[in-house]
Structure formats: C-alpha cells, structure tokens
Amino acid sequence: MVLLLQYTLLFASVLILVALGGCFSEHSGVINLGLEGIMVIGALGGALTLKYIDPSTPKALILLAVLAASIVCGVLYSVLLAVACINLKADQTLVGTALNMLAAAAATVIVKSINMAENPDNVSSTVQYMATKKALVKNIGSFQFNWFMLVALIMLILAYIILYKTRFGLRLMACGEHPQAADSVGINVYKMRWAGVLISGMLAGIGGIVYITAGVSEWKFEVGVAGFGFLALAVMIFGQWKPINIGLAALLFGFFRALSNVYSGFDFLAALNIPGSVYNMMPYIISLIVLAFTSSNSRAPKAEGIPYDKGSR
Amino acid sequence: MNNKEKQSFLSKPAVQSTLAALLCIVIGLLVGYVALLIINPKGATEAIITILKNYFTYPSPKAAMKYLGNTLVKAAPLLMCALSIQFCYQAGLFNIGAAGQYVAGAGAALYCALALNLPWPICLIAAFVAGGVFGIIVGLLKSYLNVNEVISGIMLNWIGLYSVNMLLSGVKETASPYTVQLASTNPGALLPSLGMEKLFSNNKYVTIAIPLAVIIAIVLKVILSKTVFGYEIRATGIAKDAARYSGMKEKKNVIITLFIGGALAGLGAAFLFLSGYEQWSVTQSSVPSMGFNGIAATFLGGLDPIGTIFASYFIQHITSGGSYLDKNVYPSQISDFISAIIIYLCGFVLFFKLHLNSYLRARNEREKQKPIAKANKEEGGKN
Fold it and tell me: Is-contact A142 A2, C-beta < 8 A?
C-alpha cells in the first residue's frame, strides 16, 4: 500500500511538472507536442550528471546539480521548438513530432557513444546511477520520499501564482487568447511566447529526470519515456489548462500508472490473473476515455497552434 | 527570354518541393556528419559514406542486388505508413497514430497467419481492417468529441502495442520472444513473389508487396487529384468550415480519411511481416519506429504520393545503411538521428517556399518596372 502511494505520488509529480510545462506553453499560444522529447533530453542531462558526479558530494548539492542539468538541457532543447514555431512559423505539430524523434535518436546516440568510448564492447544505451541516486530520496519509515515530489508541489503553487496573480502570467495568457489584442496594448507577443516555451522546456526537463529515476537506478535511453509527454498533455486537457485541476488530474493518472508497477504486490489483484500488459495499457485507456469526455467543451486557449504574424489581423 | 524561363521553372511547385527536399537532405547529412566527427573524427568520413552506400558496400553486384532487395522489402511498409500519414494530412489530420495502426495490422496479419492458418489474401484483408478500425477510433473521437488526433493517436499506439503483444504471445517460439517462422508454420500465408526473387539474386523476401505499394501510391495520387472524394478531402483540410458550408459532410470525410489512412498503415505491416523477413517480438516495449519514420518520408516527399515513393526509399536506404557501420565505434541510430533532423528541417519548407516565392515575385516586379522606368525617363527627356 505504501509502495502504491509512493509510486502514485512519484508519477503524479512527473505528470504535474510536464503538464504544467504544456500549460505555460499553450497559454502563450504554442502547442508543445515536443514535451516527450524535451523530457528525454532533460532526463539525459540529469542522468549523466548522476553518472559523473562524485557520490561523496553532499546530497543537497547532488540534488541541485541534477536539477540544474535537467533544466538547462530542457530549456536549450526547447529553443529548437521556439525558433521554428514562433519565429519561422513552422507547423507546430510537425516540429513537435520531429523533436520527439530527434530526442530519442540523439539520446541513444550520445549514450551509446559514451558507453563505447569507455568500453568498446558495451554497445548498450543504458546509463547507471546506482550510487548517486540515493541523494534524491529520503526514507521515512517504509515510505521513500523523493525530493522531486516537493519540487513538483512548489512548481504547482508557483504556477498558480504566476499565471493568475502576476502581470507576467496574465499577459502570457492574453497572448494565447487573442495575440492581436495583446499586441495592441503593447505586449510583445513573440517575447511572451518565447517565455512560455522556455518555461515548458524547464518543467518538462525536470519531469524527465523524475520519470527515469522513479524506482529504477539505471535507464535505457532507447526506450525514451514511453509516451509520458503525451499522457501529460492528456492530464493538461483533463485539467482544463488550470494548475490546480492539473494537480488533481495528475494524481488520478499517476495512480493508474503506479498500479502497473505494483499490482503484483496485491493479493486480490494478483489472484485475478490479468496479464501485465493490461495494467501497462491502463493509463493510456483511461486517458482516451477522459479525453473523450472532456474535449468537447474544452477551455483551450483560443489562439493556440496559430503562429502569430504581426501583419495579419 | 532565358531569364523568364528560369523564373517559371523555379516557381513550379514540384521543382520547389524537390529543391526543398534536397536542401533538407543535404543539411541533415551534414549535421549527421558533424555528429560522427564528434563521436570519432578518424572514421567519420568513411562512416557517412557507408551510410550512403548501404548495399553498395558489397563488392559483387550479385550480393548488392540481394541487399537492395532487403532495403526494398523494408521500404514498402515504410511507403505505406508514409502514404497513410500523407493521405490524412491532406484532410488536415496529423495521423501520428499510423505507428499504432501499423502495429494493429501486424497483429492481425500474424494472428490470422499463425493461429488461424489462413492464406495470405485473408491475412492482408485482416491487416487492412485492423489498421482501419484503429484509424476509425481516432476519427470518431476527433469528429464527434473533438479529441486532438495526435494525443488519441499516441494513446492508441501504446494500447495497440500491448494488445498485440498479448495477442501474439500464444504463437511465439518457446525459447525466444519472437513469433514462430511463417515459412515453416504456414507457408500459404507468405506473400507470393511471382518470380521477382530471381531479379534480386534469389532474395526470397522480395514479394509482390513492393510493386503493390508503388501502385497504391499512384492510385492515391489519382484519387486525390482527380476525384470528387479527393477534392472534398483536400477542401476539408484547407478550410473545414468552408467545406461544411458548401455541403460537404466534413465529419464523415474525417472518419473515412482516417479509416483509409489506418488501413494503409495496417496493410504496410502485413507487407513486411507476411514476407517472412521479420518476426514480431512479444516483449518489445516500444512502438516500432516504422510509423514515425513514415512522417519523415511523407514530409520529405513534399506531401505528394509520387514524391513519397522516392523519399521512403531514401529514408530506408540510410536507415539500412546505418546498420553497416562499425558497431564498436558508431551507434547505428545515427541514421535515425539524420532522419529526425530531416523532419525538423521539413518544418521550414513552407517558410522556404514562401520566401522563394516572394523573392521571385519581387524580381518579376523589378523586371517589369525596368522598361517602364526606362520609358518614363525617355519621355521625361523629350519634355
């Protein structure tokens, strides 16, 4: 039971972070389908930091270094999306998809080359971080508290405050609703959209490292992050682009995802003899059902997905 | 005069698409080359040549022919996935679910062939229908419940993967996670080759799938450009509301488009798995990349069925070429990396065309203005 709670909170943290990322980007008017790819690159940055940092470094420092590396990688990678979608007015769906594929390929190539350089016989795409991973968690009884859970909570509160209580947040949302109107009162739409995309890169980058350090102490980068970036988008839609609702939606999805990790630990679930694949499918099926019920009267930002052109009205 | 001809040549859409595609390829290869240089500068030049040469690495023409066959065997399903995405894109739908529809097709074809012992035409139809059903789900969700087709497509990719893994775990080999060999279990389900294997040094995997895929591409081209249905699909893609206003049933069109798209991807999977070239691994935990590479092929092909034929071949060519790299120095995924760069660059194609056109227009204007200005000047001189 404790394990279920622990994994639910962990996966919910991932979903909260990434969905908030999507939320910032979409409120500024850019659909970020590249979240999945940004997660992979953020995860790569964090994982390599964990691999190379000296395990005797103070735990707080390890945590901060990992966080910083993931953020930097995520933000830098999201620049690719921002340039293409905001300045060059490219198709946002296409660029997002390209970024997902590019991230998977690039991460595999990078990890493999590092592994091969160390040992020519090691052609796997796995990064191990057994020793340093302990810095990220703290045992409270049998519950393993992960510091990233706290990070997610802080980000959730911050997102609420920024979006609804600050000038920046309200201006950001104006750019996603009616960019022409925003421009007419002197808001720089391009700048705001850049901000939205870069914030989403930061949050998705953190989400990536949380995902790959959840429960395991090595990660095979060929696998990517198994559609979690898209699950986060489903969470965001279910949460109607509002931070608090996103938090609640993430808990629901996190629960179903956690179930596939720990179902064998429950006697009554194990007795049902349902194949593991069914549990693996669960989050995706739930999200399809949820999307079917919530998409028809969606509160999506009005101008999302449409490149802003100063010359058009 | 000569200048004018050149202008009209450059402003032809087909020429522009080809130019843009070539530009994407060149930049993509350059970036890939830089990546190879970073990994290991010594063999980088040789490595990029290996990728480009693919089967020409073999010295004897006979062996090269055989491995050309292998590349074609995998290019056919890639072309089908690309056509699926391309067809849906015409209706304004981004069918990223092609990967899942491909998986569904593979599951249906292999289940019919291995568990039910059915002959190949039935297996093909099963794959067609299974892929189509996966497409229809996306279509229904999109047109009636306004669900973003990209997100529902991705969800269905994973649902399809796990379902097919479950479905096919009954027909796998006992010692390995792969499904049993088609040739030994049910040879009647193998696609016929009609003697084409002779052309490719007895490569038994070369089947009617390859010409069939090309024919389907041509048929799609005709449907899109010459029929009312094709016109309606393109109209729906360009302006949904205008299409509805002029009496087209845009909801029905969305669903039919996704059915056809899904069926194409499903058929593509059957083209690969019924050739016996590959077996399905029931423990695989990631969606096969075929459907995603299809995105690369379709955009590289300038969103045109005929262009897509060449683009699919090229993408498969470098993907196969990647497997000839020295595995202890370079990861073979460098080909995927190059493909991904190419797709990213394809995002800029529209931008490129826009600027090329406005440049051409501006030049045209200048050319026109010149004689007038000259005439004005002369007139001014007279007064």
Answer: yes
